[in-house]
Amino acid sequence: MGVAIAFWILAIVSVAAALAVVLLRDIFRAALALILCFLTIAGLYVTLSADFLAAVQVLIYVGAIAILIILAIMLTREVQRGGLSNKLQLPVVVVVVLLLGALIYTMVSTPWAVSTAMPLVPTTPILAGKLFGEGGFILVVEMAAVLLLVAILGAIVLVREK
Amino acid sequence: MPHQLLWLIFLLPLFSFIIISFVLRPFFNDKPQLGGYTTIAAIGGSFVISVFALFAVMANEGHALPVPDIEWVLIEGGLSIHLGLLVDSLTAVMLIVVTLVSLMVQIYSQGYMHGDPGYHRYFAFMSLFTASMLGLVLADNLVFMFVFWEGVGLCSYLLIGFWFHKPSAANAAKKAFIVTRLGDFGFLAGILALYFNTGTFDIAELHHLAITGAISGTILTWVAIGIFSGAVGKSAQFPLHVWLPDAMEGPTPVSALIHAATMVAAGVFLVARTFPLFAHSMEAMTTVAIIGGFTAIFAASIGLVMTDIKRVLAYSTISQLGYMMLGLGTGGVAIGIFHLFNHAFFKALLFLGAGSVNHATGTFDMRQMGGLRKVMPWTYATFVIASLSLAGVWPLAGFWSKDEILASSLESQPILFYLALITVFMTAFYMFRAIFMTFGGEYRGGAPEAHGHPHESPPVMVVPMVILAVLSVVSGFWNVGGQFDAFMGHGGGHGPGFFTVLTHPLPLLSLMVAILGIVLAYAVYSAKWLSAEKLRGMFGPLHTMLARKYWFDELYEDVFVRTSMLNGFFAGLQQFDTNVVDGTVNGVADGTIAGGRAVRQIQTGQLQLYGLFIGIGILAIILSVLFLG
Amino acid sequence: MLVGLEHYLILSTILFAIGLYGALSKRNAIVILMSIEIMLVAVSIALVAFSRYIVPLALTGQVFVIFIMVVAAAEAAVGLAIIIAIYRGYETIDATKINLMKW
User: Is C98 a member of any domain?
Assistant: First the structure.
């Protein structure tokens, strides 16, 4: 029951925060709303028994990505022009609503094979085994490392003064 | 002798061509005589094998040698073309003619072409020319034959245009190629029609089919006419005769080869080779005979007034080829080919003589010659022998074959006989007119740029002429007892007899007519009893007509080429090309550009719009899966 | 009211739709980038929910989420670098005015 209450609170707050991100005029406030959104999603991970992910979510999204975005906002000085829409707003709304309807319909009408087993806690050692252990995702981990390296180098090259 | 060796007859000159082109010309350009020796050695080898082949064919019961053939093209369940040799009496005779005349011409060329910068090229082409002709003669199926037929045409183009830096030579080569091409089209159509109706290209099988009547009627006639049109082009028969006189632009030994043994003989040979097809179609035979008879007198009449010695000989060749066609059309293979056989020697000799005269005087214009009898005795003697033989004076070679043609034409088409008889008179007249103008009287100076006195040609040129002169005398004796006819499978083997022939009225008549022509020529051009100028005045319009060659060049040039082709057909084609072909291409391009201009409007560069379309696409996929899948 | 898989999925879908709306209709490039981050976490929620309710003992969905975070971090770094580079050149980060890909 406690989980259900937590879910509803978190869900409502996260949707509101997401709407604030796309609708707020002040882009700095939008970024703060994004942090809120990330935090509530970390909370949702907790309700899903994903403790490690919740921690990582806070660390990476709130600690790194959000800070990076705020930094970019400071650099570009277009703080007051966040809420402006382009000419496509109406068709976008139509398409998005239709897509939302179609997806929800699909999800509700699909008979999910829900398992009754209790989730494993804590997840950290199990995830570590999955990532680095025998028959795990070690190759993908390596590729992710390369991706990050390339991304960092690319970012440096892009913003370097000529 | 193993029969596979027969392949060498045509392969030797081909090897000679390859060696000269790819070895001697690039690496031994400073030793031009090597090319000539190679050619002579190769053709000499071919000649020796040909002699053996002739005796082998003679000794063989069926007058044919079996030669194993090679599969060339095989399409399962359909087309099958064999590369094979057909060596029968006709082939054997032709092999002797081609190799012997070619050998003589090559030896002669050593002297005539001496110092020419294109010496290697000349002998390479001559080798290829001879090889093509030998391949044509040896081929046992029509496809193989057509390949060499075109090879002969190509080589004649290359050799007529040998001095391609002269515009007249380049144009003559083009003319020869294009005019013969008109005939080749008919030949190809004939071959295809034949294959369509019989399913075979093999000549022996076609003979069999024609003899058993498996192909007959209209189809056979049209096939025969198609093949004959190829022969008309190659053998310069009316109305495709216009290229041959212009072909004089090539080196004179080339003319000798073309006129005697290779190019023009190919047409006559083709008709002889496919003769059973003709023999079973009355219409085709009549066509051949009429074209031949008409060409004979038509060309001879032009020859009467030409002043260029090679042109006289050229029209003489056309006329004699007409005789051969007449012989084929009225008599049969033996008669036509016998004349070809004899004609090859004395006509080659005449051309070599003309070349010798040109070598001495630097011109071909008979009005600038004269008096050469004293300085060029060998040339004079051989030229007279050849002319007597050509005129048909007993007992020289031309007499025997011409007499047979006259006899067979009298039997089947009396009108053609009278045409042929008049041609005998004309032939004798124009040949001796040429002799008296060239060798008689006083020397008139030669070409303006020639300096010094005319002199006899070197032995390398004289010796082949003497050999050919001997052949021009004796080659006719082959059929004195009817042996040639029997060899060719024609007649019962009883000939006219060496002396008894003169007791028959017809040979006597033709001999009298020929002598009359010689006497008239003597009267006009040597003894001057009659003035040539006065005669010209008397027959003014006629002379003009003959001198302009019945305006055939003008007719073709103005009416066909300019009016019908350039302004009519080609202009129409150009209109078609500009409006329809180019229009289509441009239309497609313009349409594409216009389409691109219209469609690129949606390429706004706004990534969000693209994203919207992606979203619409995903939505469409989801909906289609939901409602359709 | 019992919370089940569908609840999480619907929440995920709503967040995804909001993100999509922002990404397609906003002018400010930074807002677009933030919208894309929302879309990424929306998908992550769906993956964790699947992992929790369908294969609770395998945790594969959580592994995928870790990789999504890696991609999101890389994307944020590069995307913001591009935005700053464009801002230097154009003095604006209005996506409708950046039309280098126009015909």
Answer: no
DSSP conformation class of B141: B
Q: Higher confidence at residue C103 or residue A125?
A: A125
Cβ–Cβ of B605/C100 closer than 8 Å?
Answer: yes
- Do A112 and C49 form a contact (C-beta atoms < 8 A)? no
**C contacts of B608 (beta carbons < 8 Å):** 23-25, 32, 95-96
Q: Does B33 touch chain C (CB under 8 A)?
A: no
- For C56-60, the CB contacts below 8 A with 24+ separation are C56/A49, C56/A115, C56/A117, C56/A118, C56/A119, C56/A120, C57/A117, C57/A120, C59/A120, C59/A123, C59/A126, C59/A127, C59/A130, C60/A130
Per the rule left: phi > 0, alpha: psi between -120 and 50, beta: everything else, A77 is: left
Whether residue C51 is contained in a domain is answered as: yes
Answer CATH for A2-80+122-159 from 1.10.260.40, 3.40.50.150, 1.20.120.1200, 3.40.50.300: 1.20.120.1200
Q: Where are the alpha helices (DSSP H) in B309-413?
A: 309-330, 333-361, 372-375, 377-391, 397-412
ipTM above 0.95, yes or no: no
Return the number of CB contacts < 8 Å for B and C: 29
Question: Above 80 in pLDDT, residue A111?
Answer: yes
CATH of the domain at C30: 1.10.287.3510
Among positive and negative, which fits the CA dihedral B261, B211, B493, B321? negative
Please report residues of B whose CB lies closer than 8 A to that of C25: 608
Check: CB of residue C33 under 8 Å from CB of residue C79. yes
Residue B562 confidence (pLDDT)? 67
DSSP A83: S
Tell me how many domains chain C contains: 1
Tokens of B28: 């031994």
Q: Are B344 and B261 in contact (CB under 8 A)?
A: yes
Q: Which of A44, A45, A19 is nearest to A33 (CA)?
A: A19
Residues of chain B with pLDDT under 70: 1-2, 61-63, 68, 72, 77-78, 216, 445-453, 481-482, 490-502, 527, 529-543, 545-566
Query: Cα–Cα distance between B155 and B133 in angstroms, integer?
Result: 10
pLDDT surpassing 90 at residue C47: yes
Q: Any chain B CB within 8 A of the CB of A115?
A: no
Residue range of the domain that includes C69: 5-90
State which residue of chain B sits closest to A105, comparing Cα positions. Answer: B626
Q: How many Cβ pairs closer than 8 A exist between chain A and B?
A: 27
Number of alpha carbons in the 13 Å side-chain half-sphere of residue B408:
26
Candidates A28, A38, A74, A100, partner chain C, best to mutate (most C CBs within 10 A): A100
Q: Which residues of B258-288 are buried (b: 16+ CB within 10 A; e: fewer)?
A: bbbbbbbbbbbbbbbbbbbbbbbbeebbebb
Greatest extent of chain C over all pairs of C-alpha atoms, in Å: 55
Q: What is the pLDDT of chain C when averaged over all its residues?
A: 88
Instruction: Tally Cβ neighbours within 10 Å of residue B585.
Output: 10
Structure tokens at B590: 């313009």
The answer to whether position C96 is within a domain reads no
Q: Find, among B268, B404, B406, B397, the residue nearest to B343 by Cα.
A: B397
CA distance linking residue B579 with residue B465, whole number of Å: 60
Which of B411, B405, B382, B379 lies closest to B392, judged by CA? B405
Nearest to B178 by CA among B556, B549, B546, B552: B556
Residue C102 falls within a domain, yes or no? Answer: no
Helix (H, G, I), strand (E, B) or coil at C94: strand
What span, in angstroms and rounded, lies between the C-alpha atoms of A94 and B616? 10
Cβ atoms of B188 and B153 within 8 Å: the answer is no
- If we measure between CA atoms, which residue out of B145, B285, B133 comes closest to residue B204? B145
Other Cβ atoms less than 10 A from the Cβ of B558: the count is: 12
Q: How many CB atoms lie under 10 A from the CB of residue B440?
A: 18
